[in-house]
Amino acid sequence: MHELSIAMSLLEIIERTARANGMSRVTKVLVKAGELTSVEPESLSFCFNEIKKESIAASAELLVEVVPLQGCCPVCGSDFDIKDSKLFCSMCGNRDIRIIAGEELCLFQVEGES
Amino acid sequence: MEVKVVSNILKANELIAEANRQVFERAGIYALNLMSSPGAGKTTLLEALAEELGSEIRMAVIEGDIATAADSERIAAKGVPTVQINTGGGCHLEAGMVARALDSLPLSELDLIIIENVGNLVCPADFSLGEQDKALILSVSEGSDKPKKYPAMFRRSSFLVINKIDLLDRCNFNLEKAVSDARSIQPNLDIFPLSATKREGLAPLIDWLRQKVESIKGRR
Ligand SMILES: Nc1nc2c(ncn2[C@@H]2O[C@H](COP(=O)(O)OP(=O)(O)O)[C@@H](O)[C@H]2O)c(=O)[nH]1
Ligand SMILES: [Mg+2]
Ligand SMILES: [Zn+2]
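Above: the input entities. Below: the structure tokens describing the complete assembly.
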């Protein structure tokens, strides 16, 4: 359960972004959370809604999009979805793949009024 | 107004982790982040390693726990410098806590630092501490289905200790399946089945650590 510390970092980045773009109020925030991160979207929203109250994002809605795992195979070059933690190439069977999506935890978009 | 940012939320931790990494590199220290669920045997394994390696390799231990100094006292009893971090409820260590712990260690006199993370199979995987490698302990009493249930931990680890093999018969643990599931998540995973309390099967792990320490000292 470390969504609180993540929510705090998130709010900090939102406040910085809002100030840099001359916003007076943040209305909506989009976060992308990879499937392979330990973030529980519901508990992140809960924490965010608790700590946003006194901030520029007091009335902001938080959307957390879970990014499914995707891999890419350095042997045959194919991209593919990774299901059920099957971390091998679904085309050629190679096991030493690269993960290209599903490990990120990022603030993706901030919407607000100036 | 819509602003695209794409800003890593874990960036603050990663910046400190990078600073720790540079501290380790400058001092020629091999740092390992040891993770497992509570009770898998992290502290017991560290006690065994302190006994086996303590006189040969200059090592220190950073103990992460939610509360109490019980674990650091166990390690310090083996004559190895130890720092206790209490997270006060936090479910994982963060790089800043390790940075502060490093202040109280004699870095120039060390070749190996092992960091015992808070017992948790989920959260520590997301927080780099600046270590060169992460490692995971799975004990046979936890069941052989864990690799599939906690893939992030297995994916990011360099080696896996399967501990408490003295209990294999009693725990209905399918060693072959655990090994193949773990390798399907991380094909480069080195796997060391052992018993930390019985001090059995430690030799391959000790060789592995010795090689890492030597290769880093060689670069110094
Ligand atoms: N049977 C058996 N018990 C073990 C072994 N290693 C650790 N234990 C026991 O497991 C319990 C938890 O060990 P500890 O090292 O404190 O786990 P930690 O929470 O991961 O640091 C203790 O009672 C240990 O004695 C082992 O190899 N075999
Ligand atoms: Mg312990
Ligand atoms: Zn392929």
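Note for the figure: Strands of chain A lie at 25-34, 61-67, 70-72, 79-81, 98-101, 105-113.
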